[in-house]
Write a structure and sequence with these properties.
The chain has helices spanning 21-34, 46-59, 71-83, 102-110, 142-151, 170-182, 213-225, 245-252, 284-292, 313-323, 353-362, 385-391, and strands at 3-7, 11-16, 39-40, 64-66, 88-91, 114-116, 123-126, 133-136, 159-163, 188-189, 193-196, 207-208, 227-232, 255-259, 262-266, 274-276, 297-301, 327-331, 334-338, 346-347, 370-373, 395-397. The strands form 6 sheets. It has a 4-stranded mixed sheet with strand order 20-21-1-22. It has a 4-stranded mixed sheet with strand order 2-13-15-14. A 4-stranded mixed sheet has the order 4-5-7-6. With 402 residues, the chain is an alpha/beta fold. The model has no long low-confidence stretch (mean pLDDT 96).
């Protein structure tokens, strides 16, 4: 079964948010380059499977590195493999072959690595990456910057990353710097980008993976529109940019309390706001749901890169909101949502985990039954989402959908 059927319900209780995919991916690469050390906890999601098997392929000198549908894995591992002098071919599935890798196709040949590609996957590389000056736009994907940061310290000679545009999603880069520092590798921020000293060595250590603010967004919105939910395991001092969801929901008028037991989100009267999501694009599906239950107009802007995710998330969100009877206007970099009565509907999951989870939250207070196709896409990052959803009182019939 690849469909979930949801009925009106109220979420109440506590939920332990799963470990951060973003932190775990970075830590796994650092641990691999260090030559060992445990990285825990890690959930059995497809994205984690992709990273682990990619690193295993490099370790075992395999010719094919299958990144499944994981953009993080692809963009982190390409420069790492190049820095190690690996001759490999990168493959992927779903929308991954359509996602941009153009900057690597330009930068790698400039620094000693041959690339064979028609502009997308499969991509074959050969040669060893050399240090130097790497000029790259900061508004395409911060994953490029992270990939280079992970790889460049192990090269002979120092390097610099020179940003030719403003860096978007900077908190993800800040997270990379923090995790690398935890493994003994230093990155220096400069006026034009970043300076990376060469000949550094990653240090072996065991690494604890913190909970995921990107996943927390769904249940924070769920509490704000329906019930009383306490989220556990989250760190307010985290380098994860998506912790900003707390402040954004407070601007909506959400009743959110941070205390010793966790972060509590209670049903509230919400009002529309303007949100620049340049640094928090992954929260957009959840925020769009909050906006649907808010009085007045919400403007979401700064999210043009959402068009290159597992789905075109601007188009996907707008399409499903319209099916639920919401007045919404699509813009190039976001959407304008006018809150109103939300109706149950037959929705498309777009094979996108964040779309499925966000509209499962919308179904809590929708008038009538909601069905969402391709519901097993949650296995990409949060396989236990519906289990947690139902344990809180949600009514999701996803018994056999895995």
């Amino acid at each position: 079964m690849n469909e979930v059927i949801l009925k009106n319900s109220i979420l109440n209780g506590e939920v332990l948010i799963p470990p951060s995919k973003s932190a775990a991916h970075r830590a796994l690469v650092c641990s691999f380059l260090a030559g060992g050390g445990a990285v825990e906890p890690i959930i059995g999601s497809k994205d984690m499977q992709a990273m682990r098997q990619a690193l295993s392929a490099l370790e075992n000198n395999e010719e094919i590195v299958d990144c499944i549908e994981s953009g993080n894995t692809l963009r982190f591992i390409i420069p790492v493999a190049a820095a190690l002098g690996k001759k490999v071919t990168f493959t992927g599935s779903g929308r991954l072959p359509e996602r941009p890798i153009g900057d690597y196709l330009r930068l790698l040949p400039e620094h000693g690595v041959g690339c064979t590609s028609n502009g997308k996957l499969p991509l074959s590389i050969e040669g060893r990456l050399t240090s130097g000056r790497y000029e790259i736009a900061g508004n395409i994907s911060s994953q490029y910057i992270t990939g280079l940061m992970l790889a460049l310290p192990i090269l002979d000679g120092s390097s610099e990353i020179v940003l030719t545009t403003r860096l978007e999603s900077k908190p993800y880069v800040d997270m990379t710097i923090k995790v690398m520092r935890d493994f003994g590798v230093e990155i220096e921020e400069t006026e034009s980008g970043y300076f990376i000293k060469g000949n550094q060595k990653y240090q072996q250590r065991d690494y604890f993976v913190e909970s995921d603010w990107s996943q927390a967004a769904f249940f924070l919105v769920g509490g704000a529109i329906s019930g009383d939910v306490t989220l556990k395991g989250l760190d307010m001092n985290s380098a994860q940019g998506d912790k900003e969801i707390v402040n954004v929901l407070k601007r909506f008028g959400a009743d959110i309390e941070i205390n010793e037991t966790g972060i509590r989100s209670r049903k509230s009267k919400l009002s529309g706001i303007t949100i620049d999501v340049t640094d928090i694009p992954d929260t957009v599906p959840a925020l769009a749901v909050a906006a649907s239950f808010a009085h007045g107009k919400t403007i979401i802007k700064g999210g043009e890169r959402l068009r290159y995710k597992e789905s075109d998330r601007i188009e996907s969100v707008v399409s499903n909101l319209k099916k639920m009877g919401i007045e919404v206007e699509e813009t190039q970099d976001g959407m304008i949502i006018t809150g109103s009565d939300v109706k149950g509907a037959e929705l498309d999951g777009f094979n996108d985990h964040r779309i499925v989870m966000a509209f499962s939250i919308a179904a809590l207070c929708a008038d009538g039954k909601t069905t969402i196709s391709q519901a097993n896409s949650i296995n990409k990052t949060y396989p236990s989402f519906f289990e947690d959803y139902n344990n809180l009182g949600g009514k999701a019939n996803a018994i056999s959908f895995r």
